[in-house]
Structures are given as C-alpha cells and as structure tokens.
Amino acid sequence: MNLFEPAPEPPVTATVVVCVYTEKRWADIVAAVESVAAQDVLPVETIVVVDHNEGLLERAREAFPRVQVVPNAHKQGLSGARNTAVELATGDVVVFLDDDATARPGWLRALLAPYADPAVIGVGGVAHPRWPVARTAVDDSGRPATLPGAPGGRDATGELDWVVGCTYTGQPTEQAEVRNLMGCNMSLRREVFKRVGGFAEDIGRIGKNPLGCEETELCIRARQAYKADGREVKILFEPRAEVDHRVSDDRVDWSYLRRRSWAEGLSKAAVSKLVGQGDALSTESRYVATVLPKALIREVKAKRPASAAAVVLCLGFTTAGYVRGKLPGATSHVSLPAADGA
C-alpha cells in the first residue's frame, strides 16, 4: 500500500449526537463538540440536544453556530434526548458521544469503518477514564481504590470501570462482536431505530440519577427483531475508536459506588422484563463468574483491602438491586417505544 495515498472514506455518513443537561459541564460540552469538529472525517451534522434547560439551550445556540442545537422534545432524561436526535438525524449512522467525553484523533473514522459490512448494525469504542486530580490513588494513573484495576498506565482498564461509564476489564481488546454497546461512545445504523423504535424512556439516566442500561436493552431488542426476520446482524466493539471520559469527584467515592451498583441491578431487572432474562444477563453471568473473582484475588494478594472491599460491595449491591427490581410491581412502569414500521 502507498503510504502517501489518502485513507479511504468511510462507507457510511454519520450524524454525531451530544446530549447535555447542565451548565456545570460547560467546559466538557465545549471540549466534546470541538473534538468532533477536529476529526479527519466529519459528520454530515452534529446535533446537541439540551435536556429541558432553557438557559443552557440559549448558551449552546450562541456558542455553536455551526451545530444544530435543539431542545429535548420527549420525556426528560438521556433516552428522551437521544430519541429527539434520532428523529432529526440524516446520516446513515447515528453516533452518540457523552457530554463529558472528548474524541481522540481518528475516532470517527475507526467507528464508521466496520459498516462496510452490511451485517453490522452497531459499533462502539473505548472510553478511557480521566480521574480527578486531587484524590488518593492506588497508582500513578490516579485510579481510586473504589475502582480497582491491574497496573498498566494511563489507559489501563479496571474491572469496575463500567460504574463510571468507561471500558472495563473483561471487554475485548481487539475488534469483536459484543451483545451491547456502552453509551459514552457508540453508534447505530439509523435504520435500526426505524425497525425497532428508539431508546426506552422509562429506563436510563435523568440528570445525576445513576439508572442506566437503555443501550443494553436497545441492542438486545434490535438483535432479536432482526433475528425474527431471519437476518443475522452484528454489533461490534472497535478498540481503535477511542474517547477520553472525564470522571467527576463525586463518582469515585463509596456512596456513588453503592448507588450506581444498586441502580445497575434495578436497571438489569427492568431490561429482563423487556427482553428476557437470558439475553439480559448473558454477558453479566460470564463477568461475575470469571472477571470479578480474579480481581478480588489480585487485590487481596496485593494487600489492598479497600479495593478488594469495593469488588465485594459492588457485586452485593448490584445483586440486591436486581432482586429488588424483580419483585412484583417494581418495574411495572417500564414499556417499549413504538417503531415506525419502516
């Protein structure tokens, strides 16, 4: 291959979506939008969706004249904001970037390249945690004791990094098929939303509420729908599509670990109601059986009792939340969005 030849253009066009809700993250929002504009492959449009915050809406419209800035037209929360963007998107693929994440060079190109395969309906990438500076850390990367991980430098993963919306130990290190994507850095063909509807607005984050799993539910629902039509599809994890995800001070303390773990259990119970327990817990079963025990043994051997306790606490609260969520009536409010039949 001629090294001076330009890189091939992606096989699809993209709409990039950044959902925002508070002016407290203004510096992060600006960094996220600017990181999209700095890509070597540009989207056909960038949409910033403001979640029921008039002051932030006005500020964003003034600051980003070349970006489509719109209010959330649906129920308050991340799912409603994403659904608003999906309805407006014109790209072949809808790409979602968190408002506190910045894309690295080459991110969008790497995310779009796998769509050359028509069987691929979704692609997600890596989210590297960027820890708060002024914290007691277990190593020179700044990693806190509440989210343990093996040594490995600035981009090393940890077993509990999903708690702060980042790539965690146990996920693939090379391109591979996965059950679902993580919302911080993910993309889906626009046709998926026409086929199965949008994100379930009865689950997912609203402001600082740590509920989630709306991405998991949508990916499982999409795969089930295509399979029912006799079409085998793929959802891929592409490690070369990288973003840096800022972790705020309040998300590395013990109280957040408990709340987030409990909320994860509740969310998984809601997903189980919508798509079935087998699909909802297939990845989690392997994670609990193989990844967490290794982490616990490593932390105990390294004489890091706080980190070992974090593993036990996380598993305990997640399990308790799931049990609570399975009780009669606990998820009776959860329903699926309608597809348009396309």
The major pleated sheet works out as: 9 strands, mixed
- Examine the coordinates and then state which fold CATH places here, giving the name of the CATH topology: Spore Coat Polysaccharide Biosynthesis Protein SpsA, Chain A
Helix/strand-derived class? alpha/beta
- The total strand number stands at 9
Q: What value does the Rg take, in angstroms?
A: 19 Å
Count of runs of 4 or more consecutive helical residues: 9
Shape type: globular
Quick one: CATH superfamily?
Spore Coat Polysaccharide Biosynthesis Protein SpsA, Chain A
Helix content: 25-40%
Q: Termini distance? A: 41 Å
Relative strand content: 15-25%
Query: What is the CATH first-level class name?
Result: Alpha Beta
Poorly predicted spans: none
The name of the CATH architecture is: Alpha-Beta Complex
Count of folded domains: 1
The overall pLDDT, averaged over residues, is: 89
| N-to-C order of helices and strands | EHEHEHEEHEEEHHEHHH
Describe the structure.
This protein is an alpha/beta fold and 342 residues long. The chain has one domain (14-253): Spore Coat Polysaccharide Biosynthesis Protein SpsA, Chain A, CATH 3.90.550. Helices cover 38% and strands 16% of the residues. The chain has helices at residues 26-37, 54-63, 78-88, 107-112, 190-196, 214-228, 254-275, 277-301, 305-326, and strands at 14-20, 45-50, 68-71, 93-97, 101-103, 120-130, 176-177, 185-189, 234-246. Strands 1, 2, 3, 4, 5, 6, 7, 8 and 9 form a 9-stranded mixed beta sheet that branches. The radius of gyration is 19 Å and the shape is globular. The mean pLDDT is 89. Residues 15-196 form the Glycosyltransferase 2-like domain. Pathway: Cell wall biogenesis; cell wall polysaccharide biosynthesis.
